UniProtKB/TrEMBL annotation:
Domain Putative oxidoreductase/dehydrogenase Rossmann-like intervals: 4-128
Span of domain DUF2520: 145-286
InterPro entries, per the entry: 6-PGluconate_DH-like_C_sf, DUF2520, NAD(P)-bd_dom_sf, OxRdtase/DH_put_Rossmann_dom, TM1727-like_C_sf
Name of this protein: DUF2520 domain-containing protein
PANTHER family with a match to the protein in the record: CONSERVED HYPOTHETICAL ALANINE AND LEUCINE RICH PROTEIN (PTHR40459)
Length: 303
């Protein structure tokens, strides 16, 4: 996949603040695209270790020195820390005019970078729509990841697109005013899937306890047991079917209008864990709304 107009951006001196899961993964990807990560910041022992492992030739420097060395400054800090970091950088004037300053926050656009843009920097929001665990798979996945891109002007969009395409990702334009909605959609799709599957595994472990066959193990609350092997192909198929067929992927008792089965589920889950039962009820209600289930299902869910 080429860059816009077939033009590759000049090789850039990249600085990363900070050496977390996202920042170091992007640093490796940018170096593979022949940019050079000249400095990064790292405070915790964990982040220093990660920087040494992923970016062994990159010195760890104070934040203002990282900024001073950079032509592309990547701000890969948690959303809650971004505004104060930008304010601090602007106050020290450590970011040179003309520096490309890109943050990786999903919920923020370029407005949060205004203090640096006023000093002549090029503001970009480049958010990888991916979950990061800290493992090597993070870097591999970047090649198939979409990036939510917001810029202040067409020049900014061209730079952002080029950078994303160079590391094998797909740039997706997100309007400044829609960043929060964009981020909410991604959180709903990723974080809440983890909660739903974890709840399902908890219930399945309880249902299967003491019934293991042929050396099967439940493995307590840790992944890798029979509960995970039962759920895995089912959950993967449901996700793939939804991405391919949308609403048509809905199956099960709610979609069929089987109020008796739904009531049984709520009772069994309530005996195991009332909070889990309430989570099931909330998701089942939304499923009933989407599938236009009969009134009998809504009556069960309202009890």
């Amino acid at each position: 996949m080429g860059t816009p107009g077939g033009i590759r951006p000049a090789r850039l001196k990249v600085g990363i603040i900070s050496a977390g899961r996202v920042g170091t993964a992007l640093g490796v990807a940018l170096e593979r695209a022949e940019h050079v990560v000249v400095a990064c910041s790292a405070i915790s022992t964990e982040s220093r270790t990660r920087a040494e492992r992923r970016l062994p030739d990159t010195p760890v420097l104070p934040v203002h020195e990282v900024a001073d060395h950079s032509e592309l400054l990547l701000l890969a800090v948690p959303d809650a820390e971004l505004a104060s970091l930008v304010t601090g950088l602007a106050a020290t004037s450590s970011v040179k005019p003309g520096t490309i300053v890109a943050h990786t926050s999903g919920a923020n656009g370029v407005a949060v970078l205004a203090p640096l843009a006023e000093q002549g920097c090029i503001p970009l929001a480049i958010h990888p729509a991916m979950t990061f665990t800290g493992g090597d798979e993070d870097i591999v996945r970047l090649a198939d990841t979409c990036f939510g891109v917001t810029a202040a002007d067409e020049i900014g969009y061209a730079i952002a697109q080029s950078l994303v395409l160079e590391i094998g990702g797909e740039p997706v334009g997100v309007r400044e005013r829609d960043r929060t909605l964009y981020h909410a959609a991604l959180a709903h799709a990723s974080n809440h899937i983890v909660t739903v599957v974890a709840d399902a595994l908890e219930a399945l472990r309880a249902a299967l306890a003491g019934q293991e066959l042929l050396g099967q193990e439940l493995v307590g609350d840790n992944p890798g047991g029979i509960a995970e092997r039962v759920i895995a192909p089912l959950a993967r198929a449901a996700l793939e079917n939804t991405l391919r067929r949308g609403q048509g992927a809905l199956t099960g008792p709610v979609a069929r209008g089987d109020a008796v089965a739904v009531a049984g589920h709520l009772a069994a889950l309530g005996d195991l864990d009332p909070e889990l039962a309430e989570a099931y009820r909330a998701v089942a209600l939304r499923t009933a709304q989407r599938s236009h289930a009969p009134a009998s299902v809504f009556e069960v869910l309202a009890r």
